[in-house]
Amino acid sequence: MKLCMIGTGYVGLVSGVCFSDLGNTVYCVDNDINKINSLNKGLVPIYEPGLEEILKKNYKQKRLIFTTDLNKAVSNSDLIFICVGTPTKKNSNSADLKYVFNVAHKLKKIINKYKIVITKSTVPVTTGDKIEQILKNLKNKKLIDIVSNPEFLREGEAIRDFIYPDRVIIGTDSKKANKILKSLYMPIIKKTSRYINTSRRGAELIKYASNSFLATKISFINEIANLCEQTDVDVKDVSLGMGLDQRIGDRFLRAGPSYGGSCFPKDTRALIDIGQKFKTNMSIVKSVVNSNSSRQLLLIEKVKSILNHKLRNKKIAFLGVTFKPNTDDMREASSIPMINYFNKKNCKITYYDPSGEKDEFRNLKNVKYSNNSSKACHNADLIILHTEWNDFKLLNFRKLVKKNNFKVFDMRNIYSPSKMRKLNIKYFGIGR
Ligand code: UDX
Question: What is the span of the domain harbouring residue 128?
Fold first, then answer.
């Protein structure tokens, strides 16, 4: 099949590359000429394990075309995926749909034979209806079907999530569009996943409901972790005990810092806003958003108490600063408010992240990047293990730090408190 991905951000690029690997011809369009030029040289603008290899292979076989020419890409394709960003609007909770509607207005001028227009971007329920309004001439002439097909790719695991999805959701009441999309996804739905055809609005809502539910699960276990700290219980035992109940499930029950990334914070806020627009109080999601933002302050307080409230000139080493491992993404990473706070308090901060130095910290006077764990930690009073990269899972802290009385705050509960006690290391975890 011939596909056009509009927008070569995370969603568009990963999906486009993976669709080409299934044998389709894929036009990836972006209006950023520098990005397209780099992609044409085989340079991948995002950090995603495995993506570059698949991209190069399909580019060589001419199944992947990177272009700024929307007209040509759309005219040559049967399926048009809208994959542009839907960031949070300034000073509001709502998703900014200007990029999506902008694309719809352009499509109106280009399409002159039957095509399926599919939103992969995360869009509030009823956005498809609004796109249909913009394209109503084409719809009346039966030249388009507008479908919602949300993506559930996790950064760092996106290729695997694409090939082995838990489910493929297609929101449309058009039998024709559904048949075509089913055959597009057939090579992967044959494996393990379920293919679900639902209404377009249903598909749009499934995406927000899924992300908000996962964010709720994380916030729930984080609050249980707070209670564990007061009652001398290990939250890992609680997660295990809860997770074995199949109605609950064991995933997304790892306590840690506040959740971050490009999706959960944005989508939970947007769901509250959508609720407001449709006169529905999303009280649980509101609590989750509040719980997650107060968690940032709570962990800062915990670090302060670990340092006995004497912050000035204390040497803090951060291991990992990204919002999760296997990505270079810093969006809404909980390290940002923490490092900014301790920088202001004149702590001396060093940090190492396997994905490299971060612009967010470049101009902070008390913050320095080190290019490995030993350099970051050798002088530390406190090591904060912030992101669970594999590089940090087998550290010998005694060798890393050149002093005796350092402390370790393991925000991802990687290490065993009893083993740390045996090594005579002052160890703090989350909810234990
Ligand atoms: C998420 C969804 O998982 C994906 O389906 C959706 O399409 C996009 O958003 P992603 O943002 O890549 O993916 O990250 P994810 O792995 O879900 O983690 C999000 C945040 O939750 C991270 O900050 C992570 O550290 C945190 N998290 C996750 C926890 O604190 N505990 C957990 O048990 C799981």
Answer: 2-198
